[in-house]
Write a structure and sequence with these properties.
Rossmann fold, binds magnesium ion, binds adenosine-5'-triphosphate
């Protein structure tokens, strides 16, 4: 049940690129909507926006247009299905990638205003630990860190958690392990990450779940549809529906 606290905000982030942030954001939104939740997706990958591409959206207004003025923030939200709205970003404009302090305040205010009617806000971030990525991560109360099973993405996930915990006092981390062969592998990877965060940061992230490597993910991306809609019975979709249930339990 929602109350006066407003929507639950989650930032989906990874450190390393290409580990599945955008796929997870989009599909989690549809999975939450399938549970009668209203969800706002914010494309926080300000330089290389992808949410619109995954959904086959033609974008005419972006976060940038709203920040530059003249565009009503609520009008920049594209309603992509009954329960899902998208606030798109722009692509290929490198100088817009990093928000200055004033723009961060402005973006915070406008997001706070447009998110009122939603139950969940999912923020997809760029890879890395640049200023905009860190800002999005501190704007939300939950940080959902996605990693693959490979050492490079695990190392980057740890580095991101370290910076957010040490420099921004963040301590509500949730871990999703993508590209796994089994749930057991996902748990093992999570445990190896949690062992390091506990040892060096005295912090234990919450295990949310794993997502199997699944060809239906790329097939759906090619047809610009969420895989939870295109192939709901396939392993990746089933895993994302389970994640949605866990997230609903969190709130
Ligand atoms: N579970 C999966 N099984 C198979 N392919 C996947 C899976 N998850 C993601 N992919 C594919 O991996 C690629 C990267 O995914 P995605 O774009 O979501 O990653 P990202 O973390 O958002 O990347 P970036 O850091 O560039 O924003 C895409 O081609 C996507 O279709
Ligand atoms: Mg992405």
């Amino acid at each position: 049940m929602m109350d006066s606290r407003g929507p639950v905000k989650l930032c989906i982030t990874s450190g390393k690129g290409g580990v599945g942030k955008t796929s997870l954001t989009v599909n989690l939104a549809y999975a939450l909507a399938a549970n009668q939740k209203r969800v706002l997706i914010v494309d926080g990958d300000l330089g290389l926006a992808n949410v619109d591409v995954l959904l086959g959206l033609s974008v005419d207004r972006t976060i940038r247009d709203v920040l530059d003025g003249g565009v009503d923030p609520a009008q920049a939200v594209a309603q992509v299905s009954a329960g899902v709205g998208v606030l798109p970003a722009s692509s290929g404009v490198p100088e817009l990638v990093n928000l200055g302090p004033e723009e961060q305040d402005q973006l915070g205010d406008l997001l706070t205003a447009i998110m009122v009617p939603y139950d969940y806000v999912l923020l997809d971030t760029a890879a890395g630990i640049g200023p905009s990525v860190l800002w999005f991560n501190t704007f939300t109360e939950h940080n959902l860190v996605i990693t693959g099973p490979d050492p490079a993405s695990l190392t980057d996930a740890y580095a991101l958690i370290k910076v957010l915990h040490r420099d921004y006092a963040r301590d509500r981390f949730h871990v999703v392990v993508n590209f796994v062969m089994s749930e057991q592998e996902a748990v093992q990877i999570y445990e190896s990450l949690a062992a390091v965060t506990q040892r060096f940061l005295d912090l234990k992230p919450v295990y949310l779940g794993g997502i199997p490597r699944d060809t239906s993910v790329m097939k759906a991306a090619r047809s610009q549809r969420p895989f939870v809609q295109q192939s709901p019975a396939q392993p990746a979709a089933r895993a994302v529906f389970k994640l949605a249930e866990r997230i609903i339990e969190l709130a």
